From TrEMBL:
InterPro entries: GntR_C, TF_FadR/GntR_C, Tscrpt_reg_HTH_GntR, WH-like_DNA-bd_sf, WH_DNA-bd_sf. The lineage of its organism: unclassified sequences, metagenomes, ecological metagenomes. It holds the Pfam family GntR. Transmembrane segments: none annotated. This is Unannotated protein. Residues 13-80 form the HTH gntR-type domain.
Length: 224
């Protein structure tokens, strides 16, 4: 069912979430490229909704760093340059080890099992980059479910902001690269299961650092 077919009037929080998800997916896929203007009225017409939920959805995406609003310019898809992206990854190298060390002691058996399920799903999706990317995001965020809300919101923001270029970077991966990535995921999961927070901190830090260094080899991705 499409968003238009499933439109609800008057607008509801769930409608705003669906509109935000639709725009977010278009940004991640590259359909809406960095710097592209988002016309609220045209978007509302295409989704068969009023401008109010569209405006609220754009506010949500603005808080995630995916769009920017400037006086006399309206709303545009955010432009992220190489240095900004690299800086976000350096922040991730510091924040996500903290997130996982806080999360592990608070994770329930069911939450750990869900992380294991997502790990298994990742192994099955190596040949499907788009699906792998989304599953990778879900796996990592599942590792932090036991951390404080303020930390998880910060981490989610980092992931939302960098998702499009992660998709482009993934296109440069070989089968061996995917294999190494999945080995690192397995290491992170084993640390969670064993309750070894110190090892988990180092595993997640090295995993993020390796991606940042791989990114440094492909600055051309930011010209797309």
């Amino acid at each position: 069912m499409t968003l238009k077919e499933d439109a609800i009037k008057p607008h509801t929080p769930s409608m705003v979430e669906r509109i935000a998800a639709s725009i977010r997916d278009s940004i991640y896929s590259g359909e809406l490229k960095p710097g592209t203007a988002i016309r609220q009225q045209a978007l509302a017409v295409s989704l068969d909704v009023s401008r109010i939920p569209v405006r609220e959805a754009l506010r949500q995406l603005e808080s995630e760093g995916l769009v920017v609003r400037k006086p006399n310019s309206g709303v545009k898809v955010a432009v992220l340059d190489f240095q900004e992206y690299s800086d976000i990854y350096k922040l991730r190298e510091r924040v996500e080890p903290l997130a996982i060390s806080e999360s592990i002691p608070n994770m329930t058996p069911a939450q750990k099992a869900e992380t294991g399920r997502l790990l298994a799903e990742l192994h099955e999706l190596v040949g499907d980059p788009a699906a792998f990317l989304e599953a990778d995001r879900r796996f990592h965020l599942s590792c932090y479910v036991g951390a404080s809300r303020i930390i998880t919101k910060m981490v989610e923001g980092f992931w939302n902001t960098t998702q499009r270029h992660r998709r482009l970077l993934l296109a440069t991966y070989s089968t061996a690269d995917f294999g190494w990535t999945n080995w690192e995921h397995r290491l992170i999961y084993n640390c969670i299961v064993s309750g070894n927070t110190r090892a988990a901190e180092e595993a997640i830090r090295m995993h993020i650092e390796r991606t940042r260094l791989r990114l440094a080899e492909h600055p051309d991705l930011f010209d797309r």
